[in-house]
């Protein structure tokens, strides 16, 4: 053991060393270099947390050189940089194409250090140069106002995974590995995050990787033992249980356990060599041409002390290897001279004078330890996926048009032609496009896509699978009953420069509210980073919507995801509610060509009236909002009332209301407005898609009643439009949590989005109908009641109402 | 094998039978009875799905006797009723106190059948009586408008778990078992839902149950092999992997695999006997007085065909044991006579004539097979927890008051006294109160609670744990880094009649958006069921809030959970934003005494100014909204402007703005309004807490500018208040996604909730200040800039601003 290692070992104390793979592959020189690189990483991590001056400790440390506000987390950092260090050696040794995902929260110091040492950081941020001045700037910016955060935020070179919210590192890694046959995605999993649900189920990603076609994910579970104040579950179960758990999940776990640096370096090197060999063997087997089988991919369990190499004890409290090492291990160094000395000794134990030259640059040996060029994990283009992104080859969406001769006469399943469109997009992009959905692509009528790419399946097959299960180890449609895992895979796929499409049930898209929030935040930050190349938008089709969940019941009725979406930055959020097949095709074409957005498309899968032929649909969707003249009769005059709609079912009911009103009141002047692009309702000062007040006023008038029939919760429309001139006359109908087991019409009636309620709304709000409309109002009420009675008697809707067609 | 069993066995074909536990404990007579009960369940399930007449098949089945709209799901039902049937025998044999949770989606037919047979259903719904007329009503209502759903909705006797959204059955079961030492909670887990993240991590509940003090959860994983159109992951991995997985999770798995009913009955009976014996042995050991250790609880893996006992094949397609059995296996029976015949044969294969007597009542043998009285799982009071609920013994919250001599002069951590209050509540309710939080109760300053009840921990201990880890196998504070699992445990605990308190980080409460939605929906439905006794409210403290996440960065800044909450029924949702310690105590006291709500309390954990002494706090919180006269100077006159706030930091900044404005413009008449109960802003027609328009107008005026400083996204206030007279003058500031690494004040400035922005808002909106205020406006802007510069230079806020006190 080198003196340095001994020096550090003296302040580490951790359980018995244990490693599954025997051997000491590092020569003494390699061991010294490896440890030097890691020492440098640890020094940098401490520098980031503590120093605002004297970055190389060229003079004794003084209180004023300590940052005023100590932020950041030491706990996870040493093990992260330990893994990064060893990957550097393996990359050089085997010429690996690898990227690094840091799952543990607040792990940035453990990643930024090696990224700086390898030179990636300075290439992207030249003011953080490889010299004393640059080093100081690098230290100061960390967790500092106007600087960078303590997670692996978008500002971190080489990062596609922030880790700010826990649980997604393996699904992100898996998405990154798809269709990247040469790539190894090293994914460090924290034992804290391993307790989250999304992480727990994402160990199953090994059932979603095809070793012939996809890259490898190499999970490195870091059992450092502690969260903020608690031990972690996985660190406190026996070795046998832990091993069984991961074997049960289908992995081949290799254990690297201990605290003595030299022993651990040898064990980690031997294990990493074994993992690379395993991956190569798996690839060779899978790529030899035989049938592809599910391999047992290697993974590493790295059990190392939390805050590894920190002082073992401070003021009588255990620090290294305990939760007290989680954040800033010595907090009061500015005021406590003894603690300042302790910190200085600790930092000097890494021997910075050996690691940095006279200019403050890392010594050549350290630079040489890292890979070069794009092999450096901080600069690998896969982690700045926009650089590698190729535009999708898109067939002409017009070719999939639904023939619509006259509006509102025929019905079609809105999503079915989209499935055909997706099939052909898939066909033209068989290496950089995938479709995602939790067991629902058939249910969602998108199954035509299986004609070119089936569901991915690499576990066991049964004979009956031949009958319609549509599974294939070459499949490109990813289905798992975990919205979390699919969303994570898709994000990883997009962040590494590819394209995708995700469809899911409306009520249960709330399961990934938080993931949407985090991805939107990531995109917002990327908009300010010129070096981050644009990535494909995240396209989310929300189908099986609330208005067709009358039979699945109350739990399946929740259109509130849109309320979550509108809270995020207008720069990255788009919401579309295409009312029919052609609008859905037009909108989807637009979304698949866009970049850096989250596009949310709401469109039900069942039979719906068709309104617009393709030409009209394109015009309508391009404008995003428009007056439907064929449903309006206000030509040349101000209308008495504006009837507006957004969404398929609300549009149908609104049109039916128009028809009823026109039959009753032929001289009533009605204007019909349909909204596809929901953000049109916001002022243009709030959202780039927003209408100007002038355009809004000209569509919605400045003083006439507006009856707005909305797909979602009605208050959302008020929230978007509250600043508009005519807001006081805006009356919105939408879902109000009034559902159980109903017929479709009864569900509409309960929430007052049905034709009768709307027609009555108009009578109530147009002054000249208050008296003249009394009779009609009574009639509408009776018809509504009759519909309800029919539903209760027959279990279905009155056919003449359910099958209503626009006759205008 | 009986003839009947043989008849059914002929249409089942499934892999080799296998059972971990050998033996055939059922006598021939018991076997016959067991099978008869299960046959009756299966018959009832089909009747629910198909029949609207001829419920006992007393005549040949005719098309008009088939429901017009076939809804419901057969696939999961037979295995659910199989488990229920066997539990019935075990309950009788061992006099067990057990409840039944059905995890698989759309499993209601498999539960409603046995609940009807045991008589529970008819006791609760007398019109669904145990005769032909009642049976028909029971069939007709299923998945029928005005009837009941296909999940185990609140209408289902004995259910505390709907299963409408998947993934929570084990965490619900665990919560039900807490502090119920005699209870066994049987929890059937679907292999579809087993793919979800929340379910995957919830297998770790065995590390949260104390066998001496808590009941047992008996998971029954039903591997029926399929989801809607896909195989399931866990059904397609080898036996060894599966066994390791569950052993790795810490269970003792017993396998029951096959399809032949008689063999399976014997295997299931033997296995269930073993499980009961295991549970008894675990209890005996744990309750003998020695140290409590984590046992290996038993679980059952029940591998049975999907849609078990359905026809093996229909029209050349495999049905039983395949995904085609998922929903309605034969859909066109009304129009296809051959299929009608097939259905009739299938239903008759259960031999209904043996199962129901002349009146249509289940034969006495079936009634005798079920347990009696409260031992019936459909009527067990634990599953109607309000019946067992005891009011919390509450110390007087006034005793925990923060002394506040004058408003806004001192700072205190808002949550710390709450921790002391919770400590004493815990002390007085050591068997029916628990505190939940994902590793954050110390971080959230609630750690006083550990003085009476520490964190629950039953895994391994290390010597260093003695130093501040606060763990104990007798602990009553539940901590796991899974918001899903904790929320599920808490829901299960409340639904079985106990009380709890959950605190979590604001940004990551979005992780459980969907669980909140579902629990709110459950409560809404319960409000319409007179037989469901009221349960304690779900009390959720959101702390570590957006305005103190300046250092954790953008990912940790998301106050949008409230936008999700307001979409749910006004009958069950409450939101409070107490601005200081005493208000937080008063609000929490109220919430803990309430029932049938979700109470969301937003209050940060860090040091904040204190405004109200306890007496004033009580008055203020009871009103929910109020004018703070000490901060207003509009006594006797109309104000020039109303400044309003909701939330701790927004209140401080708003008050600082008032102070600045009063110093500049002594004759400006300001009114200060603080909102604690957010729903006060909605009209009383929309929410029971809503202010009348008259009261609202008198607080906010009908025409003066209102500057509202809000904790969350600003649009939420518009959404609540858009109908108010003075809405056009309502100007709201809140979080607008403008954050990164900042100081607290800089974060406020970026989002314009800071004192300077607010003061400028007032100048801009009060006409007589447009000119007179120009100089002050310039001054405020410069001060704001100076604050920002200071932050960038020092990494902290300008002390005189950060440490500002109210001097009024």
Automatic annotation (TrEMBL), chains A, B:
Xylulose 5-phosphate/Fructose 6-phosphate phosphoketolase N-terminal domain residues: 26-387
GO MF annotation terms: aldehyde-lyase activity
Domain Xylulose 5-phosphate/Fructose 6-phosphate phosphoketolase C-terminal: 605-806
Alphabetical UniProt keywords: Lyase, Thiamine pyrophosphate
InterPro entries per the UniProt record, alphabetical: Phosphoketolase, THDP-binding, Transketo_C/PFOR_II, Xul5P/Fru6P_PKetolase, Xul5P/Fru6P_PKetolase_C, Xul5P/Fru6P_PKetolase_CS, Xul5P/Fru6P_PKetolase_N, Xul5P/Fru6P_PKetolase_ThDP_BS
UniProt-listed Enzyme Commission number(s): 4.1.2.-
GO BP terms, alphabetized: carbohydrate metabolic process
Required cofactor(s): thiamine diphosphate
PROSITE patterns in UniProt: PHOSPHOKETOLASE_1 (PS60002), PHOSPHOKETOLASE_2 (PS60003)
Pfam family, one: XFP_C
Enzyme kind, highest EC tier: lyase
UniProt similarity note: Belongs to the XFP family.
NCBIfam families: PRK05261.1-2, PRK05261.1-4
UniProt protein name: Probable phosphoketolase
Lineage: Bacteria, Pseudomonadati, Pseudomonadota, Gammaproteobacteria, Methylococcales
């Amino acid at each position: 053991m080198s003196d340095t290692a001994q020096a550090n070992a003296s302040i580490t104390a951790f359980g018995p060393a244990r490693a599954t793979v025997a051997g000491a592959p590092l020569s003494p020189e390699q061991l010294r270099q490896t440890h030097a690189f890691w020492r440098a990483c640890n020094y940098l991590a401490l520098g980031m947390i503590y120093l605002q001056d004297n970055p190389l400790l060229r003079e004794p440390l003084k209180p004023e050189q300590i940052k005023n506000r100590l932020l950041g987390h030491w706990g996870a950092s040493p093990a992260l940089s330990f893994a990064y260090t060893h990957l550097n050696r393996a990359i050089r040794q085997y010429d690996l194409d690898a990227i690094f995902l840091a799952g543990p929260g607040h792990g940035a110091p453990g990643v930024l250090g090696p990224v700086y040492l390898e030179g990636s950081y300075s290439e992207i941020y030249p003011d953080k140069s490889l010299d004393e001045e640059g080093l100081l700037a690098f230290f100061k910016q960390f967790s500092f106002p106007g600087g960078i955060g303590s997670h692996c935020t978008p500002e971190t070179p080489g990062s596609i995974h922030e880790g700010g919210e826990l649980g997604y590192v393996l699904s992100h890694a898996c998405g990154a590995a798809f269709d990247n046959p040469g790539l190894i995605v090293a994914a460090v999993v924290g034992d804290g995050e391993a307790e989250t649900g999304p992480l727990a189920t994402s160990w199953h990603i090994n059932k979603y990787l095809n070793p012939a076609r996809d890259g490898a994910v190499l999970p490195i579970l870091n059992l450092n033992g502690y969260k903020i104040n608690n031990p972690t579950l996985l660190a406190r179960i026996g070795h046998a249980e832990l091993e069984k758990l991961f074997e049960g999940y289908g992995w081949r776990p290799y254990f690297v356990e201990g605290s003595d640096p030299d022993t651990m370096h040898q064990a980690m090197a031997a294990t990493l060599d074994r993992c690379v060999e395993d991956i190569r063997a798996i690839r060779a087997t899978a790529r030899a041409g035989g049938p592809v089988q599910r391999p047992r991919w290697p993974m590493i369990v790295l059990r190392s002390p939390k805050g590894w190499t920190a002082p073992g004890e401070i003021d009588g409290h255990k620090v290294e290897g305990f939760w007290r090492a989680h954040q800033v291990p010595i907090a009061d160094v500015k005021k406590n001279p003894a603690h300042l000395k302790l910190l200085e000794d600790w930092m000097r134990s890494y021997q910075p004078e050996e690691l940095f030259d006279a200019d403050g640059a890392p010594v050549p040996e350290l630079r040489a330890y890292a890979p070069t060029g794009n092999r450096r994990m901080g600069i690998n283009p896969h982690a700045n996926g926009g650089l590698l992104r190729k535009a999708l080859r898109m067939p002409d969406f017009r070719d999939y048009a639904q023939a619509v001769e006259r509006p509102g006469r025929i019905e079609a399943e809105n999503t079915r032609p989209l499935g055909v469109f997706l099939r052909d997009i898939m066909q033209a992009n068989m290496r950089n496009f995938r479709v995602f959905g939790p067991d629902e692509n058939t249910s969602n009528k998108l199954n035509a896509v299986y004609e070119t790419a089936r569901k991915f399946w690499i576990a066991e097959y049964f004979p009956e699978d031949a009958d319609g299960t549509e599974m294939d180890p070459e499949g490109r449609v990813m289905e798992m009953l975990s919205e979390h895992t699919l969303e994570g895979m898709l994000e990883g796929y997009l962040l590494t420069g590819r394209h995708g499409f995700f469809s899911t049930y409306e009520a249960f898209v709330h399961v990934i509210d938080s993931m949407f929030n985090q991805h939107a935040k990531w995109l917002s930050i990327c908009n300010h980073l010129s070096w981050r190349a644009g990535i494909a938008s995240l396209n989310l089709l929300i189908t099986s919507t609330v208005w067709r969940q009358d039979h699945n019941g109350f739990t399946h009725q929740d259109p509130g995801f849109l309320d979550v979406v509108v809270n995020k930055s207008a720069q990255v959020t788009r919401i579309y509610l295409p009312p029919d097949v052609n609008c859905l095709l037009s909108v989807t074409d637009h979304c698949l060509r866009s970049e850096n957005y989250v596009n949310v498309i709401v469109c039900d899968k069942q039979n719906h009236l068709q309104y617009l032929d393709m030409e009209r649909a394109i015009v309508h969707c391009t404008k995003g909002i428009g007056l439907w003249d064929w449903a309006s009769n206000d030509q040349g005059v101000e209308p008495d009332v504006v009837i507006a709609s957004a969404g398929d079912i609300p549009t149908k009911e609104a049109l039916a209301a128009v028809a009823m009103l026109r039959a009753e009141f032929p001289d009533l002047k009605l204007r019909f407005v349909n909204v596809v692009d929901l953000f049109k309702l916001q002022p243009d000062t709030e959202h780039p898609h927003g209408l100007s007040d002038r355009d809004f006023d000209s569509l919605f008038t400045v003083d006439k009643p507006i009856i707005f029939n909305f797909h979602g919760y009605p208050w959302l429309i008020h929230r978007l439009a509250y600043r508009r001139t005519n807001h006081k006359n805006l009356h919105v109908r939408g879902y109000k949590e009034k559902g159980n087991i109903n017929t479709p019409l009864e569900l509409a009636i309960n929430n007052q989005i049905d034709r009768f309620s709307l027609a009555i709304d108009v009578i109530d709000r147009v002054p000249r109908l208050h008296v003249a409309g009394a009779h009609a109002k009574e009639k509408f009420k009776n018809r509504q009641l009759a519909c309800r009675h029919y539903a209760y008697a027959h279990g279905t809707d009155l056919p003449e109402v359910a099958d209503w067609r626009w006759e205008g």
